[in-house]
Amino acid sequence: MHFHTSLGGNSDITNFFEMIKRYGKDLKIHLVHMGGGVSGHIRLISQWRDLIEGGYQVYIDSSWAIGFAVRKLLKEIDQTGIGVDRFLFGCDEPWSDYEGEFWKIQGAPISDEIKERVFWANAEEQYFSKLV
Question: What's the CA gap between 81 and 46, in Å, rounded?
Fold first, then answer.
C-alpha cells in the first residue's frame, strides 16, 4: 500500500500509525515523504526502530523530506542496520528539485553500501524482484 504523507489534515503521519499497527504485518506500507514535515519526520523517526523490530512492513522515501530528518534516520540506520532495506530514494519530480533530493542522500555521512541500497537496490527488491 502506498500512502501520501504531508503536513496536517488527513495526510498527517499520526493518522497512519493505527493503520500500520492493524495491517502492517500483513501488507507492505510505503509512506511517501517520510512522514511529511518536521513534526511528521520526528514522530516517524521516534517510532521507526520499534516498527521495524515489531515486524511491521513499513517503507519510506526521502522525497520532500527535510534534510536534518533524512540525515538523522540514515545515520541511525548506518549505526544499527535496522531498516536498511526500508528506506527508498524519492525525488517527486517535477514538483521537487532532483539535485537537492539526490544530495540529501549522497551528502549524508553514511556508508556507500547504504547509499547504493537507498538509491536503487531497495526499490529493485521491493518493486521489481518479483517481475523476473
Answer: 16
